[in-house]
Amino acid sequence: MTTKHLTDPVTVLAGVGPKKEQALKELKIVTIDDLLHYFPFRYEDLKVKALNEINDQEKVTLKGVVIAPPIVSRFGRGRNRLNVRLLIDHAAIIVTFFNQPWLKDKFETGTEVAIYGKWDAKRKSLTGMKVLAVKNEASPQFASIYSASKRIRQTTLVKLIRAAYQAYATQITDVLPATLQQKYRLMSERAMIHGMHFPKTQTEAKAARRTAIFEEFFLFQMALQLLKKREQAPEQGVKVHYDNQQLRQFIQTLPFELTHAQKRVVNEICRDLKSPYHMNRLLQGDVGSGKTIVAAIVMYAAITAGYQVALMAPTEILAQQHYKNLQRVFADFDVKIGLLTGAVKGKTRKQLLADLAAGQIDMLIGTHALIQTGVDFANLGLAITDEQHRFGVNQRRILREKGYQPDILAMTATPIPRTLAITAFGEMDVSTIDELPAGRIPIKTSWIRSNQVPNALAFIQKELAQGRQAYIVTPLIEESESMDLKNAQAIFEKMQAAFTPTYQVGLLHGQMKNEEKEQTMQDFKANQFQVLVTTTVIEVGVDVPNAAAMLIFDADRFGLSQLHQLRGRIGRGHAASFCILVADPKNQNGIERMKTMVATTDGFQVAQKDLELRGPGDVLGEKQSGMPEFKVADPVADYRALEVAQIEAQQLVVSGAWQRPENHGLAVYLKQHAQNYQNLD
Fold first, then answer.
1. What single DSSP character describes residue 344?
2. Are 442 and 597 a contacting pair, CB within 8 Å?
3. Which tens digit of pLDDT belongs to each residue from 649-676?
4. At CA 552, angle to CA 546 and CA 554, rounded to 5?
5. How far apart are CA 380 and CA 407, in angstroms?
6. What is the enclosing helix (H) or strand (E) of 226?
């Protein structure tokens, strides 16, 4: 007799031929283990209720005695209805089943039946969905509801899961360490799988779900913590012995005092630079919190130790802005700075690359051009990515391979709630600048309906009259760039009609060439025009201190974090700034988002609310989010379990206890399932 393994293919089950195998594969069910862990997303309550307990249109189970033979009548082509009369609580109730004439045989006069269906209070009738029990059968209390597909029905899934459990229950072993099961009152693996699929009570279903959620988070965190440990092995890193004296002198030349948060973060990063471990740190801070100066300080630290540094930005505009700012910051220091973008070509590019390879450039700023072949550093010690969520994992990896394991610092002005920091960036250490520099005047945000736009334009006129500038952000049309452009041009024409000839109006959109975008931004910065009509191209990092007003059309089409990023383009000068959101939201969710923007300018609160309202994929962008697809766990709703799972996984990995004999099931699981974690010991 062959030995059974949970890794057996689902085809070992009776009735699973090539067609069903393919349909299951589409649901990511390939093995018996996959099938047993394909959990229901909800349960239907099948408990029998009395007539006086139920509401109109409620789905409910009724139990009664058949008081007349069932009747099948036909109507329309190939359509029929089956009517059966039941006596329930001394009342005669009609139950109707559509297009299921074969159920007729289930109803014998004088026998008791339990039927699940939808109650119609006016007609005192039930539209039947399924017959749960006949004669003296026990009526089930719950039905597990699965995400099925057109190619495989609920009933088939339930049947297969039941067959798999009956045949393989003895093969199910515990993955969670026994210590954690006891500490958090969690079920064994076998009891959890049974409780998820076939709960007898609401209590059992809840306990099983609680265990499944914790287990899913815990296994994910184990994989992340093991990756982190491997990344931080001493042989993986470089020791950056920077000159503390020179670094202090540099900080003293800055024209302002660093905030407490900036000082704390600089210390955290410098500690990482000096350690033999590989730094993999995320620096997050709200719009305008002063991340760039922190980056400049730590880059200078690496340069004093004889290393080269690289800073990669997602757009040419942002790369050029960093280049100009850093040239200004290091004007009195012997730091050679280079700029490499797609626009740098020919002899200039050739010379730049030669100087870089010869170690004559200390600091290279650029776009993804930095990770192209032929860009070779002599001694790269620190690589920084700005707006890090805009770069995929591979792009970050290639940048890292440009040197011998350089330390990595990722920066983002999209504040990431702790929930996402633990999941999407769990293998990174996180530094947070949670304090704005002194003297920043908070931006005042207001929300208006579209019929109030003339008033808003009159307000902007007053701002322009005081010598300020304004952004007008066009609606977001995700389906097509050409629609985006059409929209931008239509609004551009309206704004020209509203503001010229007194003021000049410019236009910026995604389909312009990079040189045109750069020129437009430079012209706006130089006050060549006072109003800039723009798409979300200006979302990241563009700095025009004189821009003090912003009007965003159809604001409810944007995510909260994106609105916050756009709003961060103003409020960079000494004048009070105003952001006006134009929106006519159609639902409560849209209203909530507008209220949040008006209520707070704290990016972390905004991001947390965005996460609650829209989910992690939308907040970070599905492709870049790095968020795993959890089956039962929800990082937002189940945040406490996520936090505990991270702490426990961290302790097991740091202590090495996960490899002890009593945790054999966990070690086996990680080696079998977690991709890229094959060489864990």
1. -
2. no
3. 989 988 888 888 888 889 888 877 655 4
4. 175
5. 9
6. helix 202-231
